[in-house]
Specification:
This protein is of the alpha/beta class and 432 residues long. Helices cover 45% and strands 14% of the residues. It is built from 18 helices and 12 strands. The strands form 3 sheets. Strands 2, 5, 6, 7, 9, 10, 11 and 12 form an 8-stranded mixed beta sheet that branches. Strand 11, helix 15 and strand 12 form a beta-alpha-beta unit. The longest helix is centred in the C-terminal third of the chain and has 35 residues. The radius of gyration is 21 Å and the shape is globular.
Length: 432
C-alpha cells in the first residue's frame, strides 16, 4: 500500500538559485528586516505549532484575537496584531503564517474559505488516482506544491514576503539526513550559497509540512562558490559543554561539504521542533546571545519581549487499556509518537522559559529594565471538560469539519484572552 501511495520513483525538483554577490543588497534576512523597521521598544514573536489544519485554525483564531485587541501606544490606539514583529512556524502553522506574510489582513476575509474549510487532504488524495499521474516521476509533494500554489500562494516567492508593516515570517523545516532545524531565512540559505528571495513560498510551506513517507522531501541544491561562514568562537567553545548546541552546529557546518551534501532533503519541521520555538532560540544562541545579536543588527535593547506560543498538540486518549486485545501497529505507533511529542514539547517549554530568564538578566540594567512575557495557548488550559475532549479528538489532518474549525477558532481566542500572562502584558502596556 505504501509503495502505491508513494508512486513510482520520483525525483525532487530543484528551484533554488545560487547567490549572486552583486545582487544581494536586500536579502530576506534578520538584519535586513530589522533595518527596514524603525527602532522599537517592543519585540513580539508568535510561534505556530504543527498539527495540520487544526494548527492552522488555532493560529488563525489567535490572530483574530490580536486583531481585535486594542492597545494605547504613545497616546494612539493600535491593534496588538500590528505590534507582532516575527512569526516562527512549523507544519500546519506555516500555512497561516505564510498567508499572513503575503496578504496581510486579507487573511480575515479569505483564509477560512481558501484553506481552513477546504478538503485539502481529499484533493491531494484524489490526484493520486488520476491516470495521468501514474506514469510520471513527479512525487506527491510536487503535486501538493502545485495545489498550494493554486489555492493559496499563486507562485509567490520570498521577495513577495518583504512587505512593509508586516512581521517577518520564519518557516521551519527539518534536514532529513542530519536532523537539523532549518529556517527559511537568508541567514540559513547563506550556508547553501543560495538566494532565498527567488524561492517559492509554497515550496517552503510544503517542506515544513512534508510528513515523511506520506510526502517526499523537498530538495534544495547546496551550491559552491560563496564565502565560507565564520563561526563565533565563543559559541564553538560553548558547544563543547552543550550537547544539543554541539549537534546543531555540527549539522549546520555539514553544509560546507559541497560534494557529499550536494542536495539537501527537507521534511516536516515538527520532527525537530513541533512548536516553532527552538528555531527562534537557535538563532539567538548561534548569534552569540541576545546582546550580540542586537549589536550585530545595530538595534537598541527593547523594554519588552513577548513570546506567544500557539500549541495545537493534542492529548492521546487511547482505549487500548480497556481490554487485553493487542493494539494494532498503527495504534502502537501513534501512542509512541504522542508520548515522545509531549515530552519533547514539555522540554522545549522549560528550555524557552530558562532562556528568557537568562536573557532578561543579561540585558536588563537599572536604567533600562527588560520585561519578558511567555504566553501559552494550548488545549490543556481549556476549562470545560466536554470542550477539551472534543478539541483533543480533532485529527491531525488537512481535512476537518466546519464545526471543528469553529471550535478551534473560538477556543483559541478565549484561551488567549483568559491567559494570565497575556493579561499581565495588557496591564503593563496600559500603565498605572
Amino acid at each position: 500500500m505504501l509503495a502505491f501511495v508513494s508512486g513510482c520513483a520520483s525525483y525532487g525538483i530543484v528551484q533554488n538559485k545560487p547567490i549572486n554577490d552583486t545582487d544581494i543588497a536586500l536579502p530576506y534576512s534578520l538584519k535586513t528586516w530589522a533595518n527596514s523597521k524603525k527602532a522599537e521598544d517592543f519585540i513580539f514573536i508568535l510561534a505556530f505549532s504543527g498539527g495540520g489544519t487544526r494548527a492552522a485554525a488555532m493560529a488563525y483564531g489567535v490572530m483574530q484575537e490580536l486583531r481585535d485587541t486594542s492597545i494605547d501606544m504613545d497616546g494612539q490606539q493600535e491593534r496588538l496584531l500590528d505590534r507582532v514583529t516575527h512569526i516562527s512556524s512549523v507544519s500546519g502553522g506555516s500555512f497561516t503564517a505564510a498567508y499572513y506574510g503575503l496578504y496581510g489582513d486579507k487573511i480575515f476575509d479569505a483564509f477560512e474559505s481558501e484553506f481552513l474549510r477546504k478538503d485539502v487532504e481529499g484533493a491531494l488524495t484524489k490526484s493520486l488516482f488520476r491516470p495521468i499521474h501514474w506514469f510520471t516521476r513527479k512525487g506527491r509533494t510536487e503535486r501538493a506544491i502545485d495545489y498550494y500554489n493554486e489555492i493559496l500562494f499563486h507562485d509567490a516567492t520570498f521577495a513577495d514576503m518583504m512587505q512593509p508593516n508586516r512581521p517577518m515570517i520564519i518557516i521551519n523545516a527539518s534536514d532529513l539526513a542530519y536532523g537539523v532545524r532549518f529556517s527559511f531565512i537568508q541567514d540559513y540559505f547563506n550556508l547553501l550559497c543560495s538566494d532565498l528571495r527567488f524561492f517559492p513560498v509554497a515550496r517552503a510551506v510544503a517542506a515544513s509540512s512534508a510528513v515523511p513517507v506520506v510526502f517526499n522531501p523537498v530538495v534544495i541544491e547546496n551550491y559552491a562558490g560563496c564565502s565560507a561562514l565564520q563561526w563565533n568562537p565563543q559559541i564553538i567553545e560553548l558547544a563543547k559543554q552543550n550537547r544539543e548546541l554541539f549537534d546543531t552546529l555540527k549539522g549546520l557546518k555539514s553544509y560546507s561539504n559541497k560534494e557529499s551534501r550536494k542536495y539537501i532533503h527537507f521534511v516536516d519541521g515538527g520532527i525537530t521542533d513541533n512548536m516553532g520555538l527552538r528555531a527562534m532560540t537557535d538563532v539567538v544562541t548561534i548569534s552569540g546571545g541576545p546582546g550580540a545579536m542586537i549589536n550585530k543588527m545595530q538595534r537598541k535593547i527593547p523594554r519588552r519581549v513577548v513570546l506567544l506560543s500557539v500549541n495545537a498538540s493534542t492529548e492521546h486518549n487511547s482505549d487500548m487499556d480497556k481490554a487485553t486485545l493487542q493494539p494494532s501497529m498503527l495504534d502502537a505507533m501513534n501512542a509512541v509518537t504522542d508520548v515522545q511529542l509531549h515530552r519533547y514539547n514539555a522540554a522545549t517549554v522549560d528550555k524557552v522559559k530558562e532562556d528568557l530568564d537568562i536573557w532578561t538578566e543579561q540585558m536588563s540594567t537599572p536604567e533600562h529594565p527588560l520585561t519578558t512575557y511567555f504566553i501559552q495557548v494550548s488545549f490543556e488550559e481549556t476549562p470545560q471538560l466536554e470542550l477539551k475532549l472534543f478539541l483533543n479528538k480533532i485529527p491531525t489532518s488537512f481535512s476537518i469539519t466546519d464545526e471543528q474549525v469553529d471550535s478551534l477558532i473560538s477556543s483559541a481566542r478565549n484561551l488567549l484572552r483568559a491567559d494570565p500572562e497575556f493579561q499581565r502584558l495588557l496591564s503593563d502596556i496600559a500603565g498605572p
